[in-house]
Design brief:
The chain is elongated, with a radius of gyration of 39 Å. The longest helix is centred in the N-terminal third of the chain and has 63 residues. It is built from 2 helices and 18 strands. 27% of the residues are buried. It has one domain: Porin. Strands 3-4-5-6-7-8-9-10-11-12-13-14-15-16-17-18 form a 16-stranded antiparallel beta barrel. By secondary structure, the chain is mostly beta strands. Helices cover 14% and strands 44% of the residues. The N terminus is likely disordered. A hairpin with a 2-residue loop joins β12 and β13.
Length: 471
C-alpha cells in the first residue's frame, strides 16, 4: 500500500502552514519594534532627569555660596530677639544662643550731715555724682547644656564701690534637670543678696561682713518640686564685700554654700512664696600683706572702721540665716550674719566676732506683684498717659564689731585716729522706687545712720538717687 501523500496535498498543507505563521512573525516583529521604541524613550527620559537633577544641585550650591558670602544673610534655622530681656541670637532648637545685656547705674549722693569729723579736717562724706556700675554683659548657651556669662566692670571706683575689671566670668553645665556645675568667678552663696539689694540703692550692713564674689567651682540645683534649693562649692576665699580681685592671695581654700527651703512651694497657700535659707563658709587665711582686711562701710559707702596694721591669719567662719516672703504687692526680707575671724596685731592673736542684721519691707503702691527681681509695671511710663509702677520701701539694719578690736590690752588701733572709728552702727532708711518699665528704674532713698562708741563722729544723714537701665 502506498502511504505517500499526493504532491498536491503536501503543497496545500505547506501553503496553509505558511499562511498561519506569517501573521505571527509579523506580530512578533511589531512587538520587538515597540519594545525598542519604549526603551529609547526611557533612555531619553533618564538623560533628561539626570540633567534636571544636576541643574538643581548647581542651583542649591549657588544659593549656599551666596548666603555664606553675604553678611546679612540669615539662615532660616536662626532667630533673633530684641525685648526687655535683651538682644539675642539663637538656633531654632535653642541649643545655641548668644545674648547681649547691660547694667547702667548713675547715682547721686547728697549728705545732710557735717562733711568732716568735728574739730578736725578728716573728711567723712562728699556730695557727688558717680557712675556706680557700667556692665556690658555677654551670655549664652551652647550644645544645649552649657551656659556662660562674661561681665566686665567699666565704671570707676574703689574696693568699697566698683572698680574696672572683670566682675563675673563663668561657665556651667546642666548635668541633670536638678543639678548643675559652675566654675569661674561669680556670686558667693553665703549672702542672700551678695553685693546688691533688691529694694534699696545700697546694700545693708549684712553684706559688709559677707563675701560678694569669689572664684571657684560650685554644684547647685533644686528638688523637682521646688521644695529646696542648694549651692555648695570650693572657693579661693575672698575678703568681705569686694569683687576687685583676680586670683587667690594664699594657699588656703574655703568651703561655702547655701540651702534654701520653700516649705509651701507648689501649693495654693498664701505662704507658697515663703523661703527660709542659711548660708555659710569656713576656711583659713594666711596673714601677709596680701591678707589685708576689708574695712566695713556704711550704707553710704563711708568707712566704718579702719583696721590699720591688723591682718587675718587663721580660721574664718561665716554664718547667715535669712527669710524672704513675696506675696502680691508686698515683700519682706530678713537676714542675720555672724562671722568669726582670727586676727593678728604684731605677735598677738585674737578672735574677732562681728554680727550684722537687717529687715526690709516693701509695698507696691500701684498693685503689681513684687518679686525678688523687681517689679514689672502693668503699663510702662508714657508721658501724659501712664506712670508705670511705684514701690514704697523701708529698712533698718545694724552692725556690731567685736570689743576685742578696741580692748586696752591690745592697744588702740595703730595709725588710725580714734575719732574716725565706731564700734557699731544702726541705720534707718526709706525710699520710693519708680519702675518706669521693666528696664528703666528711678530710685530715691534716705538713710540715717547712728554710730556707737564714738561721740565725735556725727550721725550720717544722706539722700541717694539712682537712674538705672537694666536689660
Amino acid at each position: 500500500m502506498n502511504h505517500r501523500l499526493p504532491l498536491r496535498l503536501v503543497v496545500s498543507i505547506a501553503i496553509l502552514l505558511s499562511g498561519g505563521a506569517l501573521p505571527c512573525a509579523i506580530a512578533l516583529n511589531a512587538d520587538a519594534d515597540e519594545i525598542r521604541l519604549l526603551r529609547e524613550q526611557i533612555r531619553l527620559l533618564d538623560q533628561k532627569l539626570r540633567a534636571l537633577e544636576k541643574k538643581q544641585e548647581e542651583r542649591e550650591q549657588a544659593v549656599a555660596a551666596s548666603a555664606a558670602a553675604s553678611p546679612t544673610a540669615t539662615p532660616k534655622s536662626v532667630t533673633t530677639t530684641a525685648d526687655a530681656s535683651g538682644f539675642s541670637i539663637s538656633a531654632a532648637d535653642k541649643g545655641y544662643k548668644l545674648a547681649f545685656k547691660a547694667l547702667v547705674q548713675v547715682d547721686h549722693r547728697h549728705f545732710l550731715n557735717e562733711k568732716t569729723v568735728p574739730g578736725t579736717s578728716t573728711p567723712i562724706a562728699q556730695n557727688t555724682f558717680l557712675l556706680r556700675r557700667i556692665r556690658p554683659i555677654l551670655a549664652g548657651t551652647f550644645g544645649g547644656i552649657f551656659d556662660f556669662s562674661v561681665v566686665p566692670e567699666m565704671s570707676a571706683g574703689d574696693a568699697t564701690t566698683s572698680s574696672s575689671g572683670l566682675f563675673d566670668a563663668w561657665i556651667s553645665a546642666r548635668l541633670s534637670p536638678t543639678m548643675s556645675i559652675k566654675a569661674g568667678k561669680f556670686t558667693s552663696p553665703v549672702a542672700l543678696e551678695a553685693g546688691t539689694s533688691r529694694h534699696f540703692i545700697e546694700a545693708p550692713f549684712v553684706n559688709a561682713i559677707l563675701p560678694n564674689r569669689d572664684i571657684g567651682v560650685e554644684l547647685s540645683g533644686s528638688s523637682g518640686e521646688g521644695l529646696f534649693e542648694y549651692r555648695i562649692g570650693a572657693f579661693n576665699g575672698a575678703r568681705n564685700n569686694t569683687s576687685a580681685f583676680a586670683r587667690d592671695v594664699d594657699n588656703d581654700k574655703s568651703i561655702a554654700g547655701r540651702l534654701t527651703l520653700n516649705p509651701f512651694a507648689g501649693g495654693t497657700s498664701a505662704l507658697k512664696t515663703l523661703s527660709i535659707g542659711v548660708g555659710a563658709s569656713a576656711g583659713r587665711e594666711e596673714g601677709s600683706a596680701a591678707g589685708t582686711l576689708q574695712a566695713p562701710v556704711t550704707n553710704a559707702q563711708q568707712t566704718l572702721v579702719s583696721f590699720g596694721s591688723l591682718i587675718s591669719n587663721g580660721e574664718h567662719v561665716r554664718l547667715s540665716p535669712s527669710v524672704a516672703y513675696y506675696s502680691g504687692p508686698t515683700s519682706f526680707v530678713g537676714e542675720y550674719a555672724w562671722t568669726k575671724q582670727q586676727l593678728f596685731r604684731g605677735t598677738t592673736a585674737f578672735d574677732s566676732k562681728t554680727t550684722a542684721w537687717r529687715a526690709t519691707l516693701g509695698c507696691v503702691l500701684t498693685g503689681e506683684d513684687s518679686t525678688p527681681r523687681g517689679v514689672a509695671p502693668r503699663v510702662n511710663f508714657v508721658p501724659g498717659q501712664s506712670w508705670g509702677a511705684f514701690e514704697l520701701v523701708g529698712r533698718i539694719s545694724g552692725i556690731q564689731l567685736d570689743d576685742a578690736l578696741f580692748a586696752p590690752g591690745l592697744g588702740a588701733l595703730p595709725n588710725v585716729a580714734t575719732s574716725a572709728n565706731a564700734t557699731g552702727a544702726t541705720a534707718f532708711g526709706g525710699g520710693l522706687n519708680w519702675f518706669m518699665s521693666r528696664n528703666l528704674t528711678f530710685l530715691l532713698n534716705y538713710e540715717y545712720t547712728d554710730f556707737d562708741g564714738n561721740t565725735r563722729r556725727p550721725a550720717e544723714s544722706a539722700l541717694f538717687s539712682r537712674a538705672q537701665l537694666n536689660f
